[in-house]
Amino acid sequence: MRNKNSSGVEETVLEIVSSIGSRESVVSITSESRLKCDLGFDSLNMLELCVSIEGALKIRIADNLGNIETVRDIVTLIENGSTSSRVARYNIEDYPLPRKKRHICQLKLIMFLSRLAWRFDISGLEYVPADGRYILCPNHQSHFDGLWIWTAISHKRVDLSKISCLAKHEHLDSWLSRFMLSMLGGIPVDRDGNSVPAMKRALTCIQNGYTMLIHPEGTRTQDGKIHEFKGGASKLAIDAGVPVIPVRIEGALHIFPAHRKFPKIFRFGSRYPVRISFGKPIAPDGKSVEKLIAQIQSTVGRLEK
Prior knowledge:
Blueprint (H helix, E strand, L loop, with lengths): L5 H16 L21 H15 L13 H10 L20 H17 L1 E5 L11 E4 L6 H9 L9 E6 L6 H9 L2 E4 L6 H12 L3 E3 L18 H9 L3 E7 L1 H4 L10 E2 L2 E2 L1 E6 L10 H14 L3
Parallel strand pairs: 1-9, 2-5, 2-6, 3-4, 3-5
Antiparallel strand pairs: 6-9, 7-8
Helix pairs in contact: 1-2, 1-3, 2-7, 4-5, 7-8, 8-10
């Protein structure tokens, strides 16, 4: 373990930032380099940075990265043991919220009603493992994507008390979205601030046997196209040593586009279709984050529409 004197801490932090930043930027990295603006660090890079620093200096900084901008800010944080980071409205360790028997019954009822309200066209279900140790990676069309994917899998193939997903922390702002977040095992993510605690919490859940659902696009599509996948899901899969199940969902955008407060339910003579296709598991063994996420996105793009 290194001594936490000023020069030693700065040297260690610069080494770690350089090892990560050299893959993202050709600019010279100094203590004044801005992590996001100059080096292009995203939430995945911040997670890798946090884990590396915590491992090298035997400290915990994950909860205090919200207002970090430069390399020097990290050094100051470590030396002072505090920062002006925003205080979260919630304790990330509380999520996923505990689910009692009545919560599982409620979720099963909602899944049953979903099958009555919409027509599910499902393919590739045989590719979903029975042991629950995997990460689902679907494209993202609506707020109900996760609900409909779990409905397609059904409680007979997955333990509903041990499902989880990453969801933007704004879902805590209304009773309906809070209810759905609770039912689906949501872990709130501060997408514009410090996402590292949520990523670390998700990794712990996967290691404890949870089945995780992550939308690699990060946000819903507005035009129906599948947009660039981010690397967080592949990083978690590699670190946890679990396969990724690529998933394609279609029809959800038409039923529940972003401008609607509630989904369309019935139309004359028939139900709106929700088409969900599961692909073969993709093992993370020996793959880089970049290669794995590229393979996931390519596979989702080729799945049946």
